Amino acid sequence: LAVYHSFTARGLGNNDNSFTSPLYGLAYTPPVVNLQAKDAAGRYIDNPILPLLFGQGSNPYQTLQGMSSNETVWRQLGSGTVKFAALSTEHQTLTLQANGGFDTFGQDGQTYSPPYMEYERYDYPATPGSAVQAQADSRYYNGTLSAVHVWTPGQGLFSRISTATTAAGVQYDDRYLNAYTILARGLIPGVTDFTQGSPTLTQNKSDVRDLATFLSEEVLAFNEKLSVSGHVRAERSSVNGDPQKVFYYPAGAMSYRFVNPFPHADEIKLRAALGVSGNQPGYGQRDVVISPSGVIGGQNALGVPGAVGNPNIRPEQMRELEYGVDATFYDQRVGFEGSIYRRDITDLLLTAPLANSTGYSSQFINGGHMQTKGVELGLTLLPVRNPQFTWTSRTTFFTYTSTMVSLPSNVAPFVVANSGFGASYGHGRIVPGYKTTLIWGNKTRPDGSVVDTVQADGNAKFEMSFNNDFQIGNFTVSTLLDWRDGGYLSNLTQNLFDEGQTSWDYNKPSPDPAYPNLGSYRYDTWNAGRNSSVYIQNGSFVKLREITVAYPLPPAITQRLVRGHDARLTLSGRNLYTWSKYWGADPEVSNFGSQNVDHFVDLAPYPPARSFFFGVDVSW
Q1: How many Å apart are CA 252 and CA 235, to the nearest integer?
Q2: Least buried of 11, 103, 345, 611, by fewest C-beta within 10 Å?
Q3: What is the largest CA-CA distance in the chain?
């Protein structure tokens, strides 16, 4: 058992349920355990195999029987608007408006794990039995006071101006969160009150207030062919280093429409826009806080945090420039949209290391430059248009690259937090001159050394979607097809299944005759993480995303059955089929969310669901 315990459970997938050491040739057959068996007290038995392998474990039937978890959520949302027409003449209108809203959220949860649970005794042998009380209160309020003036000059000196719209106002936001958890261990059997154990407390509390004013002007001229607009927003926030300092975010846009510029061209519009926006610092990043450092001599000891706040912290600045063209041809049967953009983010919110002599490890700072360039295209076609059959097709295309241009001199290239599970499997790095979407991982050099280097790009080369709508008599049929070319993933699911010899293709032929099957070839080539590229794989796919069929009932049937004005039946299916060479169940999986630096991890996700919906829409 000692030798068996030192190995992983890879052999448990064998048909004879035996494990053979690949190094020593020793074999062990684990006992057969009936997990549904109960003891004399009516409780399910423990799971003896997992503790042998890993030193811990549980019986899922025991967990279902003994563990309890209850949660109550209460949420309220509301909004309101009040308008007052202060002025209304032939050429001018002035509207005063007040609007606001709120979103309050309360959550209360209790979890109890009895002391006789197997994992309690293995993980916390001195204090088995746990109770958790979790509470969260969130409040979000906002309000806006604004005035909108519309001027239509008509005849005279400004007759070329169709309309001039001026808007000004003030906005206020208030965001509050108070979330805390009490975890008590060492409970008496049958007692669920956390006051009867040894409690551990955690709390997350934040309170942010923003105040902003805005002014905008939009002018339509030359029979509404020319559009010129300008905006500016002035904002201050309690999370900035100086909460009284105002940051300005200007923006401007211009477009011109050419109507029937040449035969078969209905309209061509050229447009350009430039704008600046900001991203606020996180709550508390400006402050030098005191952290607890345990109890010394019966008194609470005070310490310093790992990261120290910055009293000069300020928002990130994002400047975006976009050019585009929109055009329609052949009596609006052909439409085209195209945009080219460049987005530059400066004053990035980063964490810089500090000298040990300061007493801190790092500090929040502003610095660095990241740039994103992209292209977006759209094509709309009406190949058939008549009363009996209409076919509308829309195709979209987009691609982008995001590059870290520079970092401050006191910030070294760094690994993106929560971007993967280390260089053994692939993770994200921020390095000047490199794309931010690259997957970095271990690679073994010919001399045997291991280096953390670029393995692939987690971003797709391009993505396209094909949407087709068919109007066949009274029936409407809509289809949506998506295509992604490229975009690599770190397939930890396959790595885990290869380790347990349970991969669906484990026993397929190996490309190397030295290995008996494909699974062992992959796992051994990975070599305990020294060659991460084995499990970094192309996630290209084509997906039949959705098909929807709709049919409006005749008015006579609608009035007779439901006494309604009209009724519509719909039948739709989503996520219907995927064409992909990717090994896993879904190449769109993302273990860490959808951000461009950490969206490439596949770790034992739920299989994608194929859904069907039937609906009846009735109006009276």
Answers
A1: 18
A2: 611
A3: 100
* Residue, of 7 and 216, whose pLDDT is higher: 216
pLDDT at 2: 31
For the segment 14-45, what is each residue's pLDDT rounded down to a tens digit?
Answer: 334 444 434 334 454 555 667 788 888 788 88
- In a 10 Å sphere around its CB, with 0-12 CB exposed, 13-18 middle and 19+ buried, how is residue 605 labelled? middle
Token pair of 111 as six digits: 């979890």
Q: Tell me how many degrees the CA angle 49-55-56 measures, rounded to the nearest 5.
A: 75
Express each pLDDT in 541-598 by its tens digit.
999 999 999 988 787 776 666 665 678 889 999 999 999 999 998 999 887 766 656 6
The DSSP H or E segment spanning 479 is: strand 475-486
Contact yes or no for 168/145 (Cβ under 8 A): no
Of 169, 197, 204, 168, give the one whose Cα is nearest residue 183: 197
What is d(CA 58, CA 114) in angstroms, rounded to the nearest whole number? 13
pTM for this predicted structure: 0.80
CA distance 408 to 213: 32
Integer Cα distance of 205 and 195 in angstroms: 23
The more confidently predicted of residues 281 and 304 is 281
If 0-12 CB within 10 Å is exposed, 13-18 middle and 19+ buried, where does residue 260 land?
A: exposed
**Which two structure tokens, joined as six digits, stand for 143?**
């309000």
String of DSSP letters for 216-276: EEEEEETTTTEEEEEEEEEEEETTSSSTT--EEEEEEEEEEEEES-STTEEEEEEEEEEEE
Strands 475-486 and 541-552 turn out to be antiparallel
- Residue pair 456/430 in contact (Cβ under 8 Å)? The answer is no
Q: Which is it for strands 611-619 and 566-579: parallel, antiparallel or unpaired?
A: antiparallel
Tokens of 379: 């094509």
Non-local CB neighbours of 168 within 8 Å, separated by 6+ positions: 146, 147, 213, 214, 215, 216
